[in-house]
Amino acid sequence: MRVKVVFHGSYREVTGFKEKYFQLPENANLLDLLKKLESLYGRELTGQLIDYKKNEIWSLMAIAVNGKILSNINKFNCPLNENDEIIFLPPALGG
Fold first, then answer.
1. Which residues span the domain enclosing 6?
2. pLDDT tier at 48 (50, 70, 90 boundaries)?
3. What distance in Å separates the CA atoms of residue 69 and residue 47, rounded to the nearest whole number?
């Protein structure tokens, strides 16, 4: 299946893309997508998305699937479908 991923901020700098389509196996979930991204871009990208010490998505970043922000609970297990749009939003900076 094909999904569209939108990269903002530093994620765009690492990948070189504002958005890109990826092929994933049927019945893939967000963890499958993250593994694919790590295989392509390494931990330079996924280290900004995943807290490897806790084995979870960084709590300050947001992930949206088809415009809906995912809750922190079970983000890894979020099922993906053909033509889904996944947006990775880096933490907002305050000042």
1. 2-89
2. confident
3. 20
